[in-house]
Specification:
The chain is α/β, with parallel strands linked by helices. Helix 2 packs across helix 3, helix 6 crosses helix 7 and helix 7 crosses helix 8. A hairpin with a 3-residue loop joins strand 3 and strand 4. It has a six-stranded mixed beta sheet with strand order 4-3-10-9-11-12. It has two domains: about 100 residues, no CATH class; about 220 residues, ANL, N-terminal domain (Rossmann fold, 3-Layer(aba) Sandwich).
Length: about 325
């Protein structure tokens, strides 16, 4: 092997252990803290000695050493090949990884799939409570959403077209969000789909605040947000009996979680005009029977626990939670 080629692969290996790549099933960021140093010496023509020092367990150490050997062999075969393009995982490591990370069950590919299931299984259950007197059942939600979806399709809107809709944080907006999904219209902030779309199709675009520059539209796929909603439902043990107050503005991604994690399990989304909630949040909570809140620490300061006896859970986000509020 020429000196020129000899000088290239050590640099590539150094990059691998400087955090550019992951080895041994370890992410790059973790690898840097677990491996103190790696030494690869050329013992003879075509023979190398690999030395490794760190706090890895024996199994992972063996995997890393084998992967380094595979990298060296790959570079010797083709010095122009990138480490990122090499298949360096051994059959034994692949088997071990399959045990540590078993396949997960597939979740609905489309964000609105579970709402359709809830509409079919419990059509008479209340999906949306707007103020103390206005309700919308799952059956009504599905029918009205389909009507809006058919109207959108009649206007020639399809999955290749993005649209913007105005929101007032009311029942009609939730119906529009659901309908847009059924009409396969790609919108900002939310998108649509119908049977036949793929999991990697765009679900919606959410825009950054622009605090560090111009606002940027971030595309989110059905598969990604559907998996996210499923994980939140599981982590929070969301149940059909929940009645969550929809406090977040429609232009924040938290509203997507509020809407779809409630409607996906047959729970009730509680709504009221934002000005009413800000003026007398306690009364709104009690009037519409809210049991769960997902709000900011600032808004929580408007409440006293003894004045909202039916509230079972409060989830805080958006800002740092003050110590005095946490104790309350």
């Amino acid at each position: 092997m020429s000196k020129g080629r000899c000088g290239t692969w050590p640099n590539m290996l150094n990059k691998a252990f400087a955090g550019h790549y992951g080895l041994g099933g370890i992410p790059p960021t973790s690898l840097k803290s677990l491996v103190n140093f790696l030494v690869v010496n050329q013992a003879a023509q075509g023979h190398f000695v690999v030395g490794l020092s760190g706090t890895l367990d024996p199994i992972r150490t063996e995997f890393v050493v084998h992967e380094v050997a595979s990298v060296i062999e790959g570079i010797l075969e083709d010095s122009t090949k990138r480490i990122a393009d090499m298949d360096i995982i051994t059959p034994s490591e692949r088997s071990q990884l399959s045990i540590l990370c078993p396949p997960v069950d597939n979740h609905p590919a489309l964000l609105h799939s579970k709402i359709e299931e809830a509409s079919a299984s419990c059509p008479d259950r209340t999906a949306i409570q707007y103020g103390p007197s206005v309700t919308c059942t799952y059956g009504q939600l599905n029918r009205r959403a389909n009507q809006v979806a058919q109207f959108l399709r009649s206007k020639g809107l399809d999955k290749n077209l993005r649209g913007i809709f105005d929101t007032q944080s009311c029942t009609a907006d939730v119906i529009d969000v659901y309908a847009i999904k059924s009409a396969q219209l790609d919108s900002a902030p939310l998108y649509a789909a119908k049977v036949g779309l793929e999991a990697d199709c765009l679900a919606y675009c959410i825009y950054t605040s622009g605090s560090t520059g111009l606002p940027k539209g971030v595309p989110v796929s059905h598969e990604a947000i559907s998996a996210g909603i499923d994980s939140i439902i599981e982590a929070e043990s969301v149940e059909p009996g929940w009645r969550l107050l929809q406090f977040s503005n429609f232009f924040f991604d938290v509203s997507v979680s509020d809407i779809f994690r409630m409607l996906s399990v047959g729970a009730t989304l509680c709504m009221a005009p934002i000005e009413v909630m800000l003026s007398d949040l306690t009364r709104v909570i009690n009037d519409i029977g809210v049991t769960q809140l997902f709000i900011t620490p600032t808004a929580t300061k408007l409440l006293r626990p003894d004045e909202v006896p039916d509230v079972e859970g409060i989830y805080l986000a958006g800002k740092l939670v003050p110590e005095d509020l946490a104790e309350t």
